[in-house]
Amino acid sequence: MTDQVLDDLARRVILDAARLEYGDLLEELPEHDFSPEFERKMKQLIRRADHPARHRLLRTGQLVAALVALLLLLTVATAAAGYDMWRMLAEWTAEKITLAPGQIEYIDPDDLHIPEEPGEYTDLQEALTAYGLNRSVVPKWLPEGFVLEELIVDNESNPNLIVFASLYCRGQDTISSQISIHLEYDKRTHDNFGDICKDEGDPVPYEAGGITHLLTTNAGRSVALWANGPAECFINGAVTTEELKQMIDSIYE
């Protein structure tokens, strides 16, 4: 088998393996040049499988080559695609994180029930319901001992935003939650989301209710940031990561 044939076969095995995994999505993946070292090993593998003494192992050799190629592609493409996917949801630095443009579905104020004067509410869900918001954004579960200390509804500071902020306390421990409802308005040219402080490191995605929540920490406190329709949602609390996930899960129960 000539080197040219080996080159063509190695690349065909690599691409065929990718198509088995990605199908039509392959066209959307960025181009990737395989390293000379990897292609050399691929050709060696195929050459060994093509040796007359190994004809009976040809099928196995080709399968191994395909699996090796697939593993490489999955490692490279999944890492890149996953990182890009998170970057589509949010933008972050070592110190701050914010939702990326396009993550909010702005809502027409006429589709809500905005009172002329804010009322008094017993909990966050009651306040959101009073305003006509039917998205699932409020945790139904909190770690034992946390009770609502303060609830603020602000629809006056920014004419294009309604902010629902709540504070829960358990002794010296606190959990703060903020839900900002973005209103559609004339001549809107760009998104304006809040900056959330965070510790160094990339956020970790957590899926629940068909929504991707980005988890991080700030001064050791657990933090979650996500979007759901017109709602920009944020939790910061003196809870463990597992407790934060449990809170998020309870939103969609």
Written account of the structure:
The strands form two sheets. A seven-stranded antiparallel sheet has the order 3-4-5-10-9-8-7, covered by helices on one side. 34% of the residues lie in helices and 26% in strands. It is of the alpha+beta class and 253 residues long. The chain has helices at 3-22, 36-50, 58-89, 124-130, 241-251; strands at 90-92, 96-99, 147-154, 161-170, 173-182, 196-197, 204-208, 211-218, 221-228, 231-237. Helix 1 (3-22) packs across helix 2, helix 1 packs across helix 3 (58-89) and helix 2 packs antiparallel against helix 3 (58-89).
Ordered list of secondary-structure elements with their pairings:
Elements: H1 3-22, H2 36-50, H3 58-89, E1 90-92, E2 96-99, H4 124-130, E3 147-154, E4 161-170, E5 173-182, E6 196-197, E7 204-208, E8 211-218, E9 221-228, E10 231-237, H5 241-251
Antiparallel strand pairs: 1-2, 2-6, 3-4, 4-5, 5-10, 7-8, 8-9, 9-10
